[in-house]
Amino acid sequence: MIPSSTYRIQLGPTMTFADVAEIADYLAALGVGAVYTSPILAATPGSTHGYDVVDPSRASDALGGEDGRMRLAGELQELELGLVVDIVPNHMGIADPKANPWWWDVLTHGREAEHARFFDVDWAGGPVLVPVLASDSVDDLSIEDGELRYFEHRFPIAPGTDGGTPQEVHERQHYRLVNWRRANSELNYRRFFDITTLAAVRMEDPAVFDATHEALLRWIGNREITGLRVDHPDGLTHPGEYLRRLREKAPDTWIVVEKILGPDERLPTSWPVDGTTGYDALRLVCGVFVDPAGEPVLSELAGNQDLHGMETERKRWVAEHLLRAEIRRISRLDVPEEALLEYLPRYSVYRSYLADGEVSALPSGEVGERMLAHPDSELTGRVEQTAAAVMAKGVEDTTFYRYNRFVALNEVGSDPGRFGVPVDEFHTRLAAAVESSMTTLSTHDTKRSEDVRARLAVLSEIAGEFADTVHRWTAKAPLPEPTLNLLAWQTIVGAWPISVDRLRAYLEKASREAKISTSWSDRNADFDDAVAAWPATVIETLGGEIADFVVNRLEGPGWSNSLGQKLIQLTMPGVPDVYQGTELWDYSLVDPDNRRPVDFEARREILASVEDAAPPIDSTGAAKLRVVSQVLRLRWERPELFTGYAPLSATGVAAANVVAFSRGEGDLVAVATRLPVGLARAGGWRDTTLPLTGSFTDVLSGQTHESFALADVFSRYPVALLVRSGQ
Question: Do 208 and 60 share a structural domain?
């Protein structure tokens, strides 16, 4: 069943099944249609996210186990809330081999193991390489309790292979413990991207599918799960085949896929899914609040970077260095490594889907011709899988930390080279949108939250002033690398007020992902120390100036943009998702910053306070919660209002400063202010009006309108949700 909306919860040590059950009544009161959680299956001990599943046959003990899961299911059913869960078909966690019985079996018995077929291991390459050693030495191995030990790491000893020194026992095993630095070039099992502790599974094997989905499908059959979010389908050998099998087993379940679509890309038509997880919607909603007039100034401020060249160069570097093991494995299918290194970076999207008849994304060239001739071949599957990893690591995880002219656009599914989204394109795309697809503004994977991006959008309206400010601040407190410097200033104003610790943690991640002056694997101690010291210095010396700039120039227009983005996302075609905590202002950055605990008690109190009256727009965020709750409740109670789509154009001197559309055959109209700084500078709404007739009530402000001068419609909020009176 398609939910009216979803609310994303990040499960973990501080948010268990019992904790979700405790807030379920709040979510129901908010108007949510379904609770949407991160993975619920047993994960690596100590996991903070659940994407490292170790046993798909049972619910996570750390989250409350089967008893906790059942109690949560009962509570949600009592409140008529659905449950959408995140599933991870591409890989399993192997950081703690003992915790994963299937991987332990493989390490114990090698290619003769019962579960050898479950993992994508290149058995022709010899024993399984396990990259955990700090060096090439095995001198620190020991044997304890019948296991081979390397400090805290435990590994099995195959039957009949004990006796002698630990090093001699090690040489008899079906695996080899090796220097962690050998992973990127020599590993002989496929990983999730370049993460060696996440081993890819062979989901194309029906037996693997059945074993990994048995519990999930049983819970679906019991109506304890009503929807699935499929993580990273691009890592699968045959995503379409997998999704068809999943749909066959769960015919009535709402299924969305975490498919990153480029701005001009569409889902393969043969995939029997309800849509995506909403990054395509995020690009449109955020982009329409960006002022294209700011592009030249911000481009110059960033040094007129070459985005396309940077992406191509970074993808080539990733293929050659981070994913060299995968390249070498493909090359054994009679394709030269150099040909692959030249070919893979030419993908302009995450991957092609030749087995599903989708060929438009395939780059031309000799490798592509071989793939076209044999779409079901191992070569095709491995090239396509690796192309997705090359794109993710080269663009999303590297270029998006380097190309920093305007970081509000640096999100997956977006093209930072396109400076915003024109209103006409926005309407055209929404008119063709899929009603059953998820829409979102913030996720656990976004680089920065919706409210950070909304505030940053204001910079596009005051680009010259911001450029001057950056130059002035940089002269007083520079960072030693120019692109990181520009990223840091955008980050600090976008997320202000921000603590020294949060800013330090973010800049550490950003600098190491960018891989310019430092990286995760090759540290530059002097540079790292300078970056670590900067947050305290800049907040102490420039904190007052930064606060003044944010409060006087960004805060108010940013709130306007935030409310506009949220109203549009919640009312546009699709199933809107609210990421945990973002019903109030939320100025989070990339994970783990966006996984911090949420104060739900405070949200309960604010929700009660905005039940009957529209609160002011202020730092509490109560106005945003009012917008969220009113729209979600209306979607739950009046689904017929959220059908169809028609653009609505204002008339008058400020017509360009409004984005509006109608739904439900014209009985519901969503209206939002855009480019609020320019609007105020030009003198406000003046004669601008909406071409509506009849009587409408704004469910956000409570006001009824029979004339639609925007100065009146927006007298309370810079957004309005108008419902025809009597409907």
Answer: yes
Q: Considering the chain, what is the average pLDDT of its residues?
A: 97
- The radius of gyration computed from the CA coordinates of the chain, to the nearest angstrom, equals 26
Residue 727 confidence class, pLDDT cut points 50, 70, 90: low
Is residue 726 located within the same domain as residue 655?
Answer: yes
Q: Is the pLDDT of residue 709 over 70?
A: yes
Other beta carbons within 10 Å of 210: 12
The single residue listed with the structure tokens 């990259």 is 131
Q: What is the pTM of this model?
A: 0.97
Give yes or no: residues 188 and 208 share one domain: no
Q: In this model, does residue 726 exceed pLDDT 90?
A: no
Amino acid at 584: L
* Domains of the chain: total: 4
Do the domain assignments include residue 621? Answer: no
pLDDT in tens, 28-63: 999 999 999 999 999 999 999 999 999 999 999 999
Residue 674 lies in a domain: yes
Cis-peptide into 647, omega within 30 deg: no
Report the amino acid identity of residue 376. D
Same domain, 381 and 245: no
Q: What gap in Å lies between CA 477 and CA 131, rounded to an integer?
A: 41
Residue 639 gets which letter from DSSP?
G
- Please indicate, yes or no, whether residues 44 and 114 belong to a single structural domain of this protein: no
Q: Tell me whether residue 432 is exposed, middle or buried, using C-beta atoms within 10 angstroms of its C-beta: 0 to 12, 13 to 18, 19 or more.
A: exposed
Is the distance from CB of 228 to CB of 87 less than 8 angstroms? yes
**The domain spanning residue 129 has which CATH number?**
3.30.1590.10
DSSP 8-state secondary structure symbol assigned to residue 616 = P
- What DSSP state is assigned to residue 363? P
Indicate if 10 and 58 belong to the same structural domain. yes
pLDDT tens sequence across 423-448: 999 999 999 999 999 999 999 999 99
pLDDT at 1: 85
Whole-angstrom distance, CA of residue 681 vs CA of residue 108: 71
Peptide bond into 557 cis (omega under 30): no
Closest alpha carbon to 447 in 481, 494, 385, 493: 494
The C-alpha atoms of residue 354 and residue 318 are separated, in whole angstroms, by: 24
Strands, DSSP E only, in 410-547? 438-439
DSSP-derived 3-state class of residue 59: strand
Under the phi-then-psi rule, with left for phi > 0, alpha for psi from -120 to 50, and beta for the rest, what region is 357? left
CA 573 to chain centre: 20
Q: What is the 3-state secondary structure (H, E, C) of 397-435?
A: CCHHHCCCCCHHHCCCCCCCCCCCCCHHHHHHHHHCCCC
Pairing of strands 668-673, 658-663: antiparallel
Find the domain containing 146 and state its range.
97-200
Q: Mind listing the pLDDT tens digit for each residue in 68-94?
A: 999 999 999 999 999 999 999 999 999
Asked if the structure places residue 410 within a domain, the reply is: no
DSSP-assigned letter for residue 13: T
End-to-end Cα separation, the chain, in angstroms = 26
Is position 469 within any domain?
no
